[in-house]
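S1.2 Input.
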Amino acid sequence: MAQRPNVNRTIATLRSTLSGFRAKRQTVALVPTMGALHRGHLALVKEAQKRARRVVVSIFVNPTQFAPHEDFGSYPRRFAADIQALTEAGVDVVWAPSPEVMYPAGFSTRLAPDGAALAGLEDKFRPHFFGGVATVVAKLFTQVAPDFAVFGQKDYQQLRVVTQMAKDLDLPVKIVGLPTVREKDGLALSSRNIYLSELERGHAPALYRTLKTSAERIKAGEPIEMVLEEGRAQIELAEFDLDYLEARHALTLAPVTSVKDGPIRLLVAAKIGKTRLIDNLAV
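S1.3 Output.
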């Protein structure tokens, strides 16, 4: 029988646990999550296990990255099922602080990331988001002091923001971005997919199909803006309320007009019913 991960809920117990690993000169990888784990998260765990001797998975639904109108209260929480999945995956430690532990009384320091965090993508629709993400991830990096941290590429703008934040603050952690794990029909795995009705689930793969077709057309030399305009129309025909479909530089997230502008990433966000989905794909 697999051994249950060591679940830590206070800074003191977490540091005590990690000090034992450090005393044996064991490397540590962190997989930050908000719980409601799926195959995508477990792929991150598997990658972390390849990189380090010990793996820590954090489970923390971060209130500072949700606006008042968003789904913080209803965000799926399945702690017992998550622990069972992490036990079967062979995870060593779960870091599961309460909001009061993460943000104790008097907490008053927040990061304000620039650069990719102000690219006019997610930040345009969720202006509070990356400040909350950067702050909590910086705290996680300080608390766990991992050698590696593994993130999924589905949240691509977040990955770029976190990577730059670690670099700018001279944090001794290597950020690893893992390709998006998908369903057979291309839909990116997400904890929010459980919100989709049967009809909405049938329409949802249109995002990935549009990304894939658009990337192929741009790579073949078709004008980027023409391809994007047609892609936007296709997404709306699939009954989505589109927030954006953009072509950006893969590292800076600056707008691009030609394949000569550098490596390109297509990014999309759209709402179907009450569920907002995001995705991206390299050109």
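S1.4 Remarks. The two ends are 44 Å apart (CA to CA).
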